[in-house]
C-alpha cells in the first residue's frame, strides 16, 4: 500500500474544504470536514485490522472481533454503507455517527459533533456525495497514513481553517510554536495528569504529550483532561486526540467558570500540569455567582464584569496539585498591570506562586497585533525561586512570514535557557524579589524590571535607526498601558460607565 507524503495528505485534506467554498461560511468548514475525515479514518483502520487478522487466521469471526478491539463499527455504519446511499445522504451519515458513538461510548461519545447533516438546504445530497467521493480517493489506514502524519495533517487543517475563518479562529487555535515552548517550560512527565480548562481543539494537551515523548517518557501513563465551551470544538478535540493515538483522555463540553467538569466531591480535581489560553477579557459571565463561588475559586477576589481573565486565572490556580502543580497561561499584557485588578494581583504575588512572567512579541494572538505574555506559576516553587520572580523580555524573539508571527527554534531555545537559568541577563531577563514587586503595588509589567540598554550614538552622529530605537524603547511601556486603557474602556458595561 502506497504511503501518502505529508504534502500529498495536506493537499488531499484541504481539497475537501475547497468543495464547500461558496456553500457554507469558512468558519463552519470544521463542523463538516473533521467528522467526515474521522469517519473515513475509523472505517479504514477497522478494515485494515480486519484484513490483517483474517489473512493470518482465515477466520472471519475472529477477524471481526479483532477489528472491534480497537473500536466497534456496527453493521450498516461503515463508510462504504454511507457511500452507497442513493439519497438522504445526510440522514445516512447521522445514523452512522450515532451508531458508532453508542457502540464506543467510553471513547467516542459526542465525537462527531452536532452539525445539522439532514438540512438539505445547507448540505444537499450532491454536496455530501462530492465530499464522500473526495475522501474515498485515498486510504487513511495506519499503513498509508501513520498516526503522527495524520495528526500533522489534522493540525494543518486546523491552521488553515483558522486562516480562512478570520476573527473566530482564537476560539480553537493557539500558535503552535508558542504552545510548544510552554510545554517545554513545564516539562510534563510520565504518570502525570495534564489539564486545559479552555482546550479548544486539544493542541496544548497534544503538545504536552509530544514533549513528554520527546524526552523519552512513557506517554501511556499520562492522563489528559480538557473542557471546552463550544460543542463542535470539543468534538474536534476528541477526534484530534484519537487521531494522535491517545487512549487516556477526557474532554468535556461546557462552561468552565459556571460548571467545571472535573470535580471530586465538593472540591475541584487537581492536576500536575495546567496549560491554557483563556478567552480574552470576556464580558458576558456570571460575576454574581463568582462572588459566592461554591468551589472556592475566588480566593484572590472577584474580577470586574468587563473582563473575566482573573476568574480563569484563579480557576487554573485552584486546579493545580498542591505539591506538584505548575501552570503556563497565555494572556494579554493588561493582566500584568491593570489598576482594576491590582488587589487580586497583589494577593497573587504575596502567595509566592508566580515563578516567571514572559513577554513575547506582537501577533501571537490570532488576528490581533497585541503583544502576548505567559505567566508561569507553581504550587511549590523550588528553593532558589522562592520569594523571587523571573521576568523575561522576549519581544524581539519572534519571526514573521506571510503575515504570520511565530517562534523559531532558536527563539524557543533562548527563552527556555533564560527560564532554566533563573538569573539576570542584561536587557533580556531580570530576577526581582516579591518584596520589590509588592513595593510596586504588585505591578508585574515586564518593562519595569527588565531594562533594555539605551541606544547610543556619538554627539551629532545619531542615525534614524538609533533615534527610532530610543523612541521605541521609551514609548513601549506607554503604548502597552494605552492598549490596556482602551481595553478597559471597551470592557465597561453601561452601569460601570455611569459609575465612572
From TrEMBL:
Cited Pfam families: HsdM_N, N6_Mtase
UniProt keyword list: Methyltransferase, Restriction system, S-adenosyl-L-methionine, Transferase
N6 adenine-specific DNA methyltransferase N-terminal domain boundaries: 12-135
Domain DNA methylase adenine-specific span(s) in chain numbering: 147-453
Major enzyme class: transferase
SUPFAM superfamilies in alphabetical order: S-adenosyl-L-methionine-dependent methyltransferases
Record has Transferase as a keyword: yes
GO BP annotation list: DNA restriction-modification system; methylation
Known EC number: 2.1.1.72
Keyword Transferase: yes
Substrates-to-products reaction catalysed: a 2'-deoxyadenosine in DNA + S-adenosyl-L-methionine = an N(6)-methyl-2'-deoxyadenosine in DNA + S-adenosyl-L-homocysteine + H(+)
One function term, GO molecular function aspect: N-methyltransferase activity
Entry's family note: Belongs to the N(4)/N(6)-methyltransferase family.
Protein name per the record: site-specific DNA-methyltransferase (adenine-specific)
Organism: Roseococcus suduntuyensis
Amino acid at each position: 500500500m502506497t504511503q501518502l507524503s505529508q504534502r500529498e495528505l495536506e493537499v488531499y485534506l484541504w481539497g475537501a474544504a475547497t468543495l464547500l467554498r461558496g456553500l457554507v461560511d469558512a468558519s463552519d468548514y470544521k463542523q463538516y470536514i473533521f467528522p467526515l475525515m474521522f469517519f473515513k479514518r475509523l472505517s479504514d483502520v477497522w478494515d485494515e485490522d480486519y484484513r490483517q487478522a483474517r489473512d493470518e487466521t482465515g477466520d472471519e469471526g475472529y477477524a471481526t472481533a479483532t477489528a472491534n478491539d480497537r473500536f466497534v463499527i456496527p453493521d450498516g455504519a461503515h463508510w462504504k454503507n454511507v457511500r452507497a446511499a442513493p439519497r438522504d445522504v445526510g440522514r445516512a451519515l447521522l445514523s452512522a455517527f450515532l451508531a458508532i458513538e453508542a457502540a464506543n461510548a467510553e471513547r467516542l461519545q459526542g465525537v462527531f459533533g452536532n452539525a445539522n447533516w439532514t438540512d438539505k438546504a445547507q448540505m444537499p445530497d450532491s454536496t455530501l456525495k462530492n465530499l464522500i467521493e473526495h475522501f474515498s480517493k485515498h486510504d487513511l489506514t495506519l499503513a498509508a497514513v501513520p498516526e503522527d502524519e495524520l495528526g500533522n495533517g489534522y493540525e494543518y487543517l486546523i491552521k488553515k481553517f483558522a486562516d480562512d475563518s478570520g476573527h473566530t479562529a482564537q476560539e480553537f487555535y493557539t500558535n503552535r510554536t508558542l504552545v510548544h515552548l510552554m510545554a517545554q517550560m513545564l516539562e510534563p512527565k510520565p504518570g502525570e495528569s495534564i489539564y486545559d480548562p479552555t482546550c479548544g481543539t486539544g493542541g496544548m494537551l497534544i503538545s504536552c504529550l509530544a514533549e513528554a515523548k520527546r524526552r523519552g517518557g512513557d506517554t501511556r501513563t499520562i492522563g489528559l483532561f480538557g473542557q471546552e465551551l463550544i460543542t463542535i470544538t470539543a468534538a474536534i478535540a476528541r477526534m484530534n486526540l484519537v487521531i494522535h493515538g491517545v487512549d487516556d483522555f477526557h474532554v468535556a463540553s461546557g462552561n468552565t467558570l459556571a460548571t467545571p467538569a472535573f470535580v471530586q466531591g465538593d472540591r475541584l480535581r487537581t492536576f500536575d500540569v495546567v496549560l491554557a489560553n483563556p478567552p480574552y477579557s470576556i464580558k458576558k459571565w456570571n460575576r454574581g455567582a463568582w462572588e459566592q463561588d461554591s468551589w472556592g475559586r475566588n480566593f484572590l477576589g472577584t474580577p470586574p464584569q468587563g473582563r473575566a481573565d482573573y476568574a480563569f486565572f484563579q480557576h487554573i490556580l485552584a486546579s493545580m496539585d498542591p505539591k506538584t502543580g505548575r501552570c503556563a497561561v497565555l494572556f494579554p499584557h493588561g493582566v500584568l498591570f491593570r489598576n482594576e485588578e491590582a488587589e487580586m494581583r497583589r494577593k497573587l504575588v504575596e502567595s509566592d506562586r508566580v515563578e516567571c512572567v514572559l513577554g513575547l512579541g506582537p501577533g501571537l494572538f490570532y488576528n490581533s497585533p497585541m503583544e502576548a505574555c505567559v505567566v508561569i506559576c507553581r504550587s511549590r516553587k523550588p528553593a532558589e525561586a522562592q520569594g523571587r520572580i523571573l521576568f523575561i523580555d522576549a519581544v524581539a524573539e519572534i519571526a514573521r512570514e506571510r503575515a504570520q508571527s511565530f517562534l523559531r527554534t532558536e527563539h524557543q531555545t533562548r527563552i527556555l535557557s533564560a527560564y532554566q537559568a533563573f538569573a539576570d541577563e542584561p536587557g533580556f531577563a531580570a530576577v526581582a524579589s516579591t518584596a520589590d514587586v509588592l513595593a510596586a503595588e504588585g505591578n508585574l509589567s515586564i518593562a519595569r524590571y527588565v531594562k533594555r540598554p539605551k541606544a547610543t550614538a556619538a554627539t551629532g552622529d545619531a542615525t534614524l535607526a538609533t533615534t527610532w530605537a530610543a523612541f521605541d524603547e521609551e514609548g513601549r511601556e506607554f503604548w502597552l498601558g494605552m492598549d490596556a486603557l482602551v481595553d478597559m474602556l471597551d470592557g465597561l458595561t453601561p452601569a460601570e460607565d455611569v459609575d465612572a
